[in-house]
Batch of 3 targets.
Target 1
Amino acid sequence: MNRDNRIVVHKFGGSSVATAERMRTAAGLVEADPRALKMVVVSALKGVTDALYALVHQAATTDQPWEPQWLAVKERHRTLIHELRLSESRVQPLLHRIEDDGAAVERLLQTIRLVKTASESIQDRVVGYGELWSSAIFNALLAQRATGSDRVHWLDARPCVIVHWHSLGPVVDWPMSTAAFERHAAEWVRANAGAVNSEAHTTTVVMPGFVATTPEGVQTTLGRNGSDYSASIIAALSKAQEIVIWTDVDGVLSADPRRVANARVIERLSYHEAVELAYFGAKVIHPKTMTPAIERAIPIRIKNTFNPDALGSVISNQSDDSLPVKGITTVEPVVLFNLEGTGNSGAPATAERLFGALREAKVSVLLISQGSSEHSICIAVHARERAATTAALEQAFRAERAAGLIATTAIIDHCAILAVVGDGMAGQSGVAARAFKTLADAAINIRAIAQGSSERNISVVVDEHNATRALNVVHSAFYLSDHTVSIGLIGPGLVGQALLEQIASQRERLLTRYGIDLRVRAIASSQAMHLTETPLSDDWSQTPRQRLCEQGTAIDLHRFTEHVMAEHLPHALIIDCSASADVAQHYERWLAAGIHVITPNKKANSGPMANYERLKPARRKGGSQYYYEATVGAGLPIIQTLYDLRICSMSTTVVCRFRRSFATPKRRASPSRIRATISPAPTWRANSPSWRARLGCRLNWSRLPWRAWFRSRWWRSVWMPF
Ligand code: ADP
Ligand code: ASP
Ligand code: MG
């Protein structure tokens, strides 16, 4: 392998090192990187930090024994060590380390239990062991796999990452950290910096993320999700050229993929966009990660350990201008405080006092909104800071309240902030309008609005129970084609299967050429159904019936309908390829609810006239379309032709001949020839009472022998004039 002289930082999140198999994959990714010096920052195994926090909490607040959970954490690490099949000389030191550290943790937990409280420093010591152990194990694995003269070292990151804790989180002490890094790690950096290109050895330095030290020498952490921040601090200290964050998704997505199924990868983001997204809830990266990288212009690449070939996202100075909105995120639960009253008007000091009081109380304000009259100020804070905020406001405005100058301090619980983020929104009109209109269309009430002057972020406050819906509808408004159709297909028989095949073969073309996005999201037979958030994969079109048997759940047309009518997708369509009269009974409800219906099923149009006639007002009510061309003349465009004739204002007499048996209901007294006048009149009256009187029966268009009729001279007599 030709060595590349640069320095890189790789950071592996908890899911990337959760099991022996994943650790091996991660090791392979490090080894495949040809750069000279690879600094590898490792998170705790997935779930371990949560378990350690829970242990501390349990020991401090309950009398329940914490030992079983603690033993489980230790056992998980021991099992991992065995599963990695390391050599005995590497296994023993690791097991001893777990025993020794474990004894220290046990003493800490016993102390917490005794004093019934856990100071932050004790808690930080306990939770930091997750990273200390995972990095030691990963180091042993890499060392065992190292070939030739490649070197692997473990570095204790604690003395190198020195941070002060402020109300806004940890802040790096750069002079102290640089000096400490120089003492502990500079030899590797120096050794590699001047090395010759052809020299085929690399140095890998493995270290724990998350853990750090205060300037006083007390162990601390960088806060939840802080290993990302560790990686960018180490990148700054080692003067790395790139940071690669390995996680379990393909990059930074346009929304949280756990809540928005259609979220898509953003290939390029600016540092500022990434900060805004992370600050407003995009868990994929810690918001502080960008700070050291911005100053030194180090690009951050987000990659998927489980799909390393995917390009991932790059966070750097360059953004992708083609997308004005890069992502939509939410923060919840939040509480809104609304300070209202005569005293606010024209009193700028009020805002100063308000924010002064909140700073004193160490409350961080997520969103501020104030009208120009200054009559009211609205702030949003994390729900966990509700009590502190209430007390701070009480205290700060006691005098005004007593004098009646502050009328109310309304508190609205259970809210969520929805943030729309993107550099391209600056100076572009219509972005906010689009978001607001979409929320209004989905009947989601907006409680407060804020837009920073950078115009990089528009935030609205909505009720918490609406948060996921709001996220989805706004996401769709910016990311989906206006012609995205949520399709439910009923009846996976011959016609249904042929249709699925056609959709599968044309989907891509329709999307790229015409922006028509057909998503078959539900499929049902008379017994089973299958609902899916992402469109049905194309292989369903081969054997839909069989797959429904294997994967389907019991049919429930109500749930089926709800699913097809996904609020975040602009159009809903049900295609009824069954021959069922029961299914046809639902058309009225579907059309009235705004679901378009396409059907080759003849039942709705050939049953009782009253049923058919109810469909028209339903369609008008829902603003939906009802297409039933295939119910007449086996797919010939008869209905459409008749409509077109009418629309062309042609007054034409259609003469058709048919057998008696095609008249309904009793197949009696019908003439063998019928004349129907197609005229530009608003309604076509072939089935009107007067016509029925003339025919002596109701004309059932769907049962007419259209094929024969088309071949006949009667048809030609109609068609020829055109
Ligand atoms: P790691 O353990 O690798 O640090 P995290 O769990 O901290 O991973 O972050 C990755 C997770 O963040 C993803 O699995 C995804 O569910 C979630 N996430 C939330 N918002 C976003 C987003 N906008 N883009 C990508 N992932 C997101
Ligand atoms: N293990 C820590 C956490 O779960 C830090 C990290 O994974 O980034 O918060
Ligand atoms: Mg993370």
Note: The first helix runs from residue 20 to 32.
Target 2
Amino acid sequence: MQKLNIFAPLAYFHGGSINGYNAQTAPIFMPNTVGGYMPGPRDYPGNTSQPNSSKTIIAALEHGYVVVSAGLRGRTIIEDSKYVGKAPAFIVDMKAAIRFIRHNSELLPGNVDRIITNGTSAGGATSALTGTSGNEPFFDKYLQELGAADESDAIFAASCYCPIHNLEHADSAYEWQFNGINDWSKLNYGTGKIETGKLNDEQIVLSKELKHQFIDYLNSLQLQDNNNQKLSLDDNGQGSFLNYVKNFIIQSAQKALDSNQTVDSNSGVIIENDVVKDINWSKYLSFITRMKSTPAFDDLKMDNPEPNLFGTEKIDSQHFTKFAQEHSKVPSKLADQKLVQAINPLQYLDNKDSAKYWRIRHGASDRDTSFAIPIILATSLKNTGHKVDFAMPWDTPHSGDYDLRDLFTWIDKVCAEG
Ligand code: DHB
């Protein structure tokens, strides 16, 4: 059983208020500490162990929010010789925590009609899934097994930094973006060293196949831009969706210029008189570089976090795409495809208990997943009537919580509006 921590500003214990909020009306902010789909322990102000969101918790309390930090299981936890933190444990624990605070709302500070989740990367995916999957029946069985309260687990708003989600389409999206760039480089968090490599001949062939899978997937979504124009890709992976993606980067560079940030002259961004006119896409991709080899997530030796997330009580790692299972280099099984879909936030776009308000950020130099992935999330949410604030901050790598002042301004606005 995971535990949770609940914090309220001291003023609320004496009947005071901060920024117009009091013990009854304050939004309930729920940052998580999940990264890499590893366990995300409950957290507290002043915590210095890794991972932690201590600075975020302190800033949120100073701003007048009630903070609930729930411990969430992750893919490496073993109890009684069983893996107990494989998918969907992280989201089940999150929902159990939300049900707990709702069940005890008379006793606890904060407004349970204003719950806002927040997280980065796998934690951003956790926030996104919490946002779309409110009260979805798929999770009932797991929540009952855990003894979760019989309450709603719907939330008001979700804040997601670089969410690593839509895993079953992330490999193909990655190759749609990086096909043709065969050198990769990434930081090994364990050793602190940069590792580099080159796709081999087989991976180059797989990259092309995956790229074409993405074209079919994207076209099947029938996404629309803000002017209700259809977003699609041709057989070469070009077309209105690519232009739409490029435009987010162009807007990002323009915003950087407007606030006197430097835009690197090697980035492929074409500037005339302080106006971004266009972007040389292949130059931009070479500038940010490919991080992952092929397939990027469901790798053929199952060394990545994602196959490990889809293990079972007895099996540590499993492939989660048919493609990787067919090309696997190790003895392997295919994970239950219903479970893989069930932890994809996009599965629940038509859910009437999904969060109404969304703030999604994905750095313009983030290469942990394809730009297509957060853009599909933001656009699908918009197309299904959600209120979405999406941007790709310039020169920003895979990271989160870098603009808390703006995040809190957004939370205050949507809380007042909703
Ligand atoms: C995270 C980053 C990744 O590149 C990934 O594949 C999974 C998770 C993370 O930082 O949480």
Note: The mean pLDDT is 98.
Target 3
Amino acid sequence: MLKVKWKASLSWEVKISGSKNAALPIIWACLLLKWKIKLKNMPKIKDVETFLDIISEIWVKYSWNKNSLSLDTTNIKNNKLDYKKIKKIRASIFLLSPILHIFGNIKIPFPWWCVIWRRPIDSHLNSLKKIWYNYKYIWDDIEISGKLKSGDKIINSSFSVSATENSIIANVVRKGQTILKNAALEPHVINLIDLLKKAWADIKINYLHEIVINWVEELRSDFSFEVVSDYIEAGTFMIIWALASKEYIDIANARISDLYTFIEKLKEAWVKVKDLWWDVLRVYKCEKIKPINIQTNIFPGFPTDLQSPFAILQTQANGMSRIHEVLFEWRLNFLVELEKMWVNLVLANPHEAIIFWPNNLRKATLTSWDLRAWMAMVIAALITEWKTKITKTEYIYRWYEDFVGKLKALWADIEDTKG
Ligand code: EPZ
């Protein structure tokens, strides 16, 4: 349980960690690279540890030196993957392409719905089918097998982030040219492409959300690569500063270019932000917040992963704000939890919510199941006069590196009682 004693007045500077959504697919893509690779700026979070646990089952050796992770894939063995561990994280979907390429078949638990939506994987399966992988459902599992064939292919990635990443990993080793149409171009997708290009892959991106992959004889390894910093974490801290800083706070590694749309929305809400120098952004405390409307979208639109933290900013706006969540139908459900703090809001339909006038957030014990909404609860706790308890803290360490430590370093009176 997390206890936030009272209203925070944060000061100083924070450094953003490596991106969770880049780190996960990158670990799997490294299975395509024969020997050693060093990944720098890797976030030390539970989901990465679980992934390392899973790949050590197939004899991938790894070691940490602070946030540098060295992987050695020289002795990969076709051992049985730990089903229970795979079942723990949805992102195990990234296993599909590298394991299929190396072992020719895989059986994983079907990644059913999660708290934010049904999250179908039809785009993944259709893309794999296009390159001669066949799949069948066996009770709660899905079994995929087949052998890659050469030839040119056009694949529809339906703007799905993980389906695009899976297709890049699957086709970078397939003979022929592959064109991914409607490809997602989120910063973590680009980071994965940069890793493979550093390994001599031939991948080009064009403005029509198209990714063109041409087969190369060999991918190299024995190099080091920097994982991109987490623009979602940076955006989350910007909202905390606007609401809970003493005066202003500087964010290093702020990924300003990736957050253009989000920062424009902050400015529209009268939050003052200033680019100090390369990727360092100063965010000022905002006393008077203007009510605005947000609509989530694929990159470079407003990130759905910042929707719930942004809703807390909207609870402090003078007037009526509207949230339109386009991608995930259940991602507004967390708002009902805010009603415990007497926030005036209406969940108009699964995609739309209206938040009314400034709310003086009341004492409450909060919880959430969606990790981004969980973070929104922490922000709400940091701006209320009352002591707030937030349960299910163990989740936060899955996606955020040393979150409580970072806030404590900024004078937040926050304590994790681990209970
Ligand atoms: C990635 O999930 C991220 N996860 C999510 O971050 C993020 O919210 C999401 O992209 C959108 O940006 C990781 O990168 C590990 P999608 P992903 O496939 O790839 C529909 C977080 O908070 N769809 O781009 O699973 C889907 O239902 C997490 O860090 C299909 O219909 O998302 C959704 O409406 C949560 N069929 C839309 O596409 C498919 O086969 C976008 O989903 C695949 C997706």
Note: The chain is about 30% helix and 25% strand.
